């Protein structure tokens, strides 16, 4: 019997197995020969069965990764239809992607509930808008604008604001965010500031483009996808007769991925419901990774505040991943903070034990890519299909090195959610410019007095608008910059490998690389960003490039932004069924300074990371390439070779921008003055100014991180380390331990 609010008496999670099923992905959607409502419930675990049989009143299902949430809600609908408690035409199930809606429709058909509507929010609203427009507004329905980016470009031109391709995509994204948060053009700057948006242009300019874009659509009788929701909301608010007609049609609602609803989608759902509460929502706050689009888990987390009588069911039996993978996923969330973390689910694997996750440290990025490719080749040789393997990374610009490594290893691959590296417009434009400069030879004024190949490449690409300094914020502009920066790094590596190489030699190399990467895509290893991997799963997953600065990404500044980065890694971990490898590289290029640190999210999880005073990096498997002699040290901002002692200490050029924490720097200076006075020493004998700047930029949180900073040797680490770390953590360094050192 079910108790109020979903509190049920059930067998221990760790001992119960249902039907011998081990993977949610491969579950039969309907038991063979089933011909009754009760047969729909066969094979469901106790919590899934509770979801399926609770057909009245509000129901909130908190479903962890791999726990069979789609199975639970489709069987719920099918059980209601088969038992006669729900009429198929009275149910509307909504989700967020066409793929998910199509999968839901297929499962419902196989369960004998084919008459149920399963659609995305936009698809459901568009059907209603088209049907009711003549009655509510009159005349023909406005044409739907499939690609708004062209109108945004025209709006920018009318405002005399020039937008490049990347800025167009990002400004379009800002307009979409404004609309789903129901923000009008005049209110955009204030709303964006309040929300902490990283705008790609001046916010007043974006507001101007946004307003002109809206006027263009009105003048031409067109609407975009956000208008579909806005207009449907407007009609349902103004025309109570139409709202009642829809509410008569749809009596019961199911919403999947409820943590991703925007304020506008929630408003539409409220209007569909009216005063009723026949609503089942399913979600997981720990998988909220799309807040930049306006998605918020608040509606999921506030559900029982809004509906105190709601039945709450938690799905925590993980049928996708092995106990080893689930243990790591739980460990990641155990360190999380914030409201979403307070509602995290402790998953319990229902699979047989498998291999432990592999933590692989490499000396440089090429070694990491080569190591990943060789491991993948071994897995394929051992019988794992290439299509059941994925390499996941934080940003699309990271794909190129893995494309090349897999091609070199003879492993087929396919890119998901991004163009092939050499097919990206910004890469093609850059190569075209390099080819033109190579043909000009010594007649190109850009290359006057520029001898070194890397410098020549930077000079040529700077003429196309690329800068050595990355743009602020995230989005398409940053991805575009990263793609061209990858070309610059490739040129520098090529020059180191072939001293005396020319621009012409480089263009030949680029052409050869492009040709070599034309690998088959069918049944290939998937290369994807972590965002694009949401909702997917593979037998083997490689999470690559897990360094601080990449995950969390450098522009994640606030606590909530950092926590979303942690959730992004959690999503990546939970994509793996059996094999999971997490890797990072200590430097970018072979011979570079090993200054990178593994992602802070792995602290306490990877072997050896919790040992006090240990060097950052687990005693993990090493890459195939051994660290050779130390090569030139490159600026971590612009990539220029560093020669001055002060620049080497900072790991950047003197005139490159600093990300120093001014508050930490001033506290360090005050502390240094006190130490110098107490010991009767010049201040620089404690730490030089450059060392203090380097500390304030790195903001180390443990001794191992502090020891990586030039100017902090063993003696000074022992003498001052605890107090410096306390200052970096915002704490009072206390009375001097220096006397005891």
Automatic annotation (TrEMBL):
Residues 323-578 form the UvrD-like helicase C-terminal domain. Coiled coil: none annotated. Residues 606-621 have a biased composition (Low complexity). Its cofactor is Mg(2+). Gene3D superfamilies: 1.10.10.160, HRDC domain, P-loop containing nucleotide triphosphate hydrolases, PCRA, domain 4. GO terms for molecular function: 3'-5' DNA helicase activity; ATP binding; ATP hydrolysis activity; DNA binding. Transmembrane segments: none annotated. This is ATP-dependent DNA helicase UvrD2.
């Amino acid at each position: 019997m079910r108790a109020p609010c979903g509190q049920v008496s059930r067998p221990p999670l760790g001992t119960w197995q249902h039907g011998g099923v081990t993977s949610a992905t491969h579950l039969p959607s309907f038991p063979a020969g089933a011909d009754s409502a009760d047969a729909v419930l066969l094979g469901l675990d106790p919590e899934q069965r509770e979801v399926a049989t609770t057909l009245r009143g509000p129901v909130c299902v908190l479903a962890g990764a791999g726990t069979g949430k789609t199975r639970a809600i489709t069987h719920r609908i099918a059980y209601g239809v088969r038992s006669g408690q729900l009429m198929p035409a009275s149910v509307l199930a909504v989700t967020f992607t066409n793929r998910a809606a199509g999968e839901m429709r297929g499962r419902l058909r196989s369960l004998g509930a084919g008459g149920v509507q399963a659609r995305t929010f936009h698809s459901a609203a568009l059907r209603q808008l088209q049907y009711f427009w003549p009655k509510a507004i009159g005349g023909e329905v406005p044409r739907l604008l499939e690609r708004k980016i062209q109108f945004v470009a025209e709006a920018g031109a009318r405002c005399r604001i020039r937008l490049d391709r990347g800025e167009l995509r990002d400004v379009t994204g800002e307009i979409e965010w404004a609309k789903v948060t129901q923000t009008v053009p005049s209110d955009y700057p204030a709303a964006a500031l309040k929300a902490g948006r990283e705008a790609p242009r001046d916010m007043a300019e974006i507001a101007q483009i946004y307003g002109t874009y809206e006027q263009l659509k009105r003048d031409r009788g067109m609407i975009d996808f956000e208008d579909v929701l806005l207009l449907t909301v407007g009609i349902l608010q103004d025309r109570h007769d139409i709202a009642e007609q829809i509410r008569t049609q749809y009596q019961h609602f199911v919403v999947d991925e409820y943590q991703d609803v925007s304020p506008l989608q929630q408003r539409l759902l409220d209007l569909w419901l009216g005063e009723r509460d026949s609503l089942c929502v399913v979600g997981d706050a720990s998988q909220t990774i799309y807040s930049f689009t306006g998605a918020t888990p608040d509606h999921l987390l506030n559900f029982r505040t809004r509906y105190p009588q709601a039945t709450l069911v938690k799905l925590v039996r993980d049928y996708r991943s092995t106990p080893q993978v689930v243990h790591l996923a739980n460990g990641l969330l155990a360190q999380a903070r914030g409201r979403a973390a307070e509602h995290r689910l402790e998953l319990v694997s229902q699979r047989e034990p498998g291999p432990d996750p592999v933590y692989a440290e490499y000396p440089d990025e090429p070694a990491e890519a080569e190591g990943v490719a060789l491991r993948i080749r071994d897995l394929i040789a051992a019988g794992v299909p290439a299509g059941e393997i994925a390499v996941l990374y934080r940003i699309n610009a990271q794909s190129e090195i893995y494309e090349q490594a897999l091609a070199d290893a003879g492993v087929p691959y396919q890119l998901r959610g991004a163009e092939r590296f050499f097919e990206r417009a910004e890469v093609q434009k850059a190569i075209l410019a390099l080819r033109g400069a190579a043909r000009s030879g010594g007649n190109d004024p850009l290359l006057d007095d520029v001898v070194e190949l890397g410098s020549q490449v930077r000079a040529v690409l700077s003429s196309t608008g690329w800068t050595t300094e990355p743009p602020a914020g995230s989005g398409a502009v940053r991805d575009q910059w990263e793609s061209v920066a990858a070309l610059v790094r490739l040129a520098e590596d090529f020059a180191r490998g072939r001293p005396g190489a020319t621009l012409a030699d480089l263009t030949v190399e680029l052409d050869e690389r492009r040709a070599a990467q034309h690998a088959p895509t069918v049944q290939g290893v998937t290369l994807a960003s972590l965002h694009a991997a949401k909702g997917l799963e593979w037998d083997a997953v490689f999470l690559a490039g897990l360094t601080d600065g990449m995950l969390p990404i450098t522009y994640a500044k606030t606590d909530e932004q950092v926590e979303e980065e942690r959730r992004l890694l959690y999503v990546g971990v939970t994509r793996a069924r059996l094999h999971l490898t997490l890797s990072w590289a200590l430097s970018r290029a072979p011979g570079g300074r090993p200054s990178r640190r593994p992602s802070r999210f792995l602290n306490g999880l990877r072997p050896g990371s919790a040992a006090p005073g240990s060097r950052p990096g687990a005693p993990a498997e090493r890459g195939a390439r051994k660290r050779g002699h130390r090569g030139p040290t490159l600026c971590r901002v612009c990539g220029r070779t560093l020669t001055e002692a002060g620049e080497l200490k900072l790991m950047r050029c003197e005139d490159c921008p600093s990300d120093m924490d001014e508050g930490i720097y001033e506290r360090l200076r005050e502390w240094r003055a006190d130490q110098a006075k107490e010991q009767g020493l010049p201040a620089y004998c404690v730490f030089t100014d450059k060392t203090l700047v380097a500390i304030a930029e790195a903001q180390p949180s443990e001794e191992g991180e502090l020891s990586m900073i030039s100017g902090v040797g063993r003696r000074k680490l022992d003498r001052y380390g605890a107090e410096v770390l306390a200052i970096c953590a915002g704490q009072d360094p206390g009375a001097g331990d220096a006397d005891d050192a």
